[in-house]
Amino acid sequence: MIIALLASLLTQQAVPQEAPQIMAALTHETVEIREDFAGTELILYGATRGLTIQDEIVVVLRGPDQDLRVMQKQRSFGIWVNAQAQEFDAVPAYYSIASSRPIEEIASRDALVRNRIGLAQLLDESATQATMDLEPYFAAVERAGARNALYTAAPRGVEVLDGGLFRATLALPPRTPVGNYTAEVYLFREGRPIARRSTSMRVEKAGIERVVYEFAHGAPIIYGLFCVALAMLAGYAAAALFGRR
Hints:
Elements: H1 2-12, E1 21-26, E2 30-33, E3 40-49, E4 56-62, E5 65-76, E6 79-92, E7 95-99, H2 103-106, H3 109-114, H4 119-126, H5 135-147, E8 151-154, E9 158-160, E10 165-172, E11 179-189, E12 192-205, H6 208-218, H7 220-244
Parallel strand pairs: 2-12, 7-8
Antiparallel strand pairs: 1-3, 3-10, 4-7, 4-11, 5-6, 9-10, 11-12
Helix pairs in contact: 6-7
């Protein structure tokens, strides 16, 4: 796929004065998560036509969506209790931005909002109660994602090479969610995107991890009973072993 991308670039360079375009491909179309998975790095290679020295590149990798319920803690009579809840619909379980320069130097906040770039913008769109002060909830979601390296930003994560080529490095942490991922690549000029390209990949369980995952999601009740029985059996075996000693 990468060889085809480079060949396409060389062919297109012969056509003068055409609108800027961007092409991109990931080194992995499928990432398998096995029992020893400790995270991995993804490399996105790309090529541009009409790139100038002022242009910048932004890459956004977005994982599968999930619904979130965030509770705000309040102190009542000396006890911390859950209070006002905020629901978020279709929030990405993984969200990573890599750029050739810090994103705030590439485009204004308004430009990023218009093009739906940035986790805060996506959270604002997915909130179900727009009348509340959402900033504390945004911060809580971002902290939780950052804690597991699921929400990341690499201000210098895109390397622009000679001849209009570029390369972006993206990291998948050990707790990477399974599902479909989309990589959006933007070519910015003077603070606005002038070209865009998307590519996709999939993260899936493999080996014993896949068997357990499908069992747990396909028959959750039986899986729960099996786990309880296994825990009881382990407890009985431990009691018998130590009691014999």
